[in-house]
Amino acid sequence: MIVQSLRLRLLLWASGAVAVALVLAGIGLTTLFDRHVERRVQDELATYLRQLSGGIEFAVDGSFSVAVPMADPRFDVAFSGLYWQVEEDGTAFAIHSRSLWDTRIALPTDPLDVGVIHRHTLPGPGGATLLVQERRIVFPTNEGERSLRMMVAIDRSDLDAASTDFAGELVPSLGILGVVLVLAVWFQVRMGLRPLDAIRKGINLVRTGTANRLPANQPREVMPLVEEVNDLLGAQEQAVERARQRAGDLAHGLKTPLTILQGDAGRLRARGENDLAGEIEGLVETMRRHVDRELNRARLHEKGVMQVRVADLGAVVEKIVRTVNRTPAGKNRRWMVNIPADLATGMDEGDLVELLGNLVDNAAKWARREVMVRAAPAMGGYVQLMIEDDGPGVPDEALAKLGNRGVRLDEQAPGNGFGLAIVRDILAAYGGNITFSNRPEGGLCVQVDLPACPPVLPIKS
Q1: Closest CA to 389 of 411, 359, 419
Q2: 149 vs 84, 103, 128, 135, 181, CA distance in Å?
């Protein structure tokens, strides 16, 4: 499974690296500890070997013994793990510490230079493994020189126990260190990704219209991204401005011909050619609605819909209802409006007026007695607006066609079929949605999801 969070991905990789580093550090420290302890033990054995050499005495009968007791009392405790043994070259005579009891350590038969210390790992009493130091010393006596092979040994299990104890104490320490390092990595990742969070908040400010560019005071590593985004915003503004100008030029270019056609229709009507005049006037009205619709779309794109405004929904609905109530279609209707106070939507007020004006006027035109308008906050950052009438409703098979450009379900009713299409254009520009359904008790229900006011996020450096 691919981790989508960059912060979590960095934290996981860093935690893995910390874990590997701590394991390697634990192995390395344990190895160094073993070498250090073994080195200290070898030094200790060398000291015992010198003590043993200095304590040798020869008797009159030619035997030898250790006249000076060894300093460490473990040499006198049976199988204590610390032993000494002395053999004479060429004879079978040997003496050993009391700790060996009745056993003897089999030394290798390799030749020894006088005074040179040899180190071995040999089996000891009870299956123990011994670290052994030995050397050959030649003693002058009245009977001539005598060569003695002396050794001291220690049970390696003591070293292994020390290493195990050290590892047991090291593991919790490395665990605590690992937790501290992971916390430090988390803090570092969080601080390192703050510029990306600042860019996200900057884009939010651009989207809400509070700013038109991303702030340039960013770290050097993310500045190429900031510059590219700012260049893209600039290019988009220029493209929108050119499109708006072209739409405006087209509208102004058509205004004069339409005025001339309107005048021609008037003259035809004066001559009694009412049918032809009415046809021309209908075409002129349709073309004007086309032009108005395209100018409206150009105005929406000019705002980029990223520059969101705030409109008081209740005040706008009240103004529209008051206006429609004075028209022939709305003066005999009973209006039921239920909109919470201070309920606002993140739209330009002019766009909201045009959107609701079309919907409310349409409801008033088809209602028999009453029109209901209500609104409430909804999930997902929307405001849900419901406009219902008690009219005849719409055939179920025709509901999906409502809002399509130029679609009119009743050709006898006034209009040209562009009102709901303009509503869809405005909602599409703002990321809203519209749904048509028939009420069970009769009439049409229009549900509009309007964008709520988006929060403006502050930028932290």
Answers
A1: 359
A2: 11, 17, 22, 6, 55
Q: What is the rounded distance in angstroms from the CA atom of residue 324 to the CA atom of residue 307? A: 29
Report how far residue 32's alpha carbon sits from residue 168's, in angstroms, rounded to the nearest whole number: 15
What is the sign of the dihedral through the CA atoms of 345, 346, 349 and 352?
negative
What pLDDT, in 10s, does the model give residues 403-428? 665 455 444 444 445 678 788 888 88
C-alpha gyration radius of the chain: 49
Encoding tokens for residue 270? 């004066």
Q: Position of tokens 């009713």?
A: 413
Residue 292 CA, chain-centre distance (Å), reads 46
Report whether 97 contacts 79 (CB < 8 A): no
Residue 122 is encoded by which pair of tokens? 């040999």
The answer to whether the beta carbons of residues 85 and 95 sit under 8 Å apart is: yes
Q: Which bin fits 417, alpha (ψ -120 to 50), beta or left (φ > 0)?
A: left
Q: What's the maximum distance between 2 C-alpha atoms anywhere in the chain?
A: 165
What tens digit of pLDDT does each residue of 103-116 get?
A: 999 888 878 888 88
Across 234-247, b (16+ Cβ under 10 Å) vs e yields eeeeeebeeebeeb
CA-to-CA distance for 162 and 158, rounded, in angstroms? 6
- Where are the alpha helices (H) located in 212-348, listed in sequence order? 223-270, 274-303, 313-324
Q: Is 322 helix (H, G, I), strand (E, B) or coil?
A: helix
Q: Is residue 141 a contact partner of residue 131, using CB atoms and an 8 Å limit?
A: no
Mean pLDDT of 92-99: 88
117 touches 46 (CB < 8 A): yes
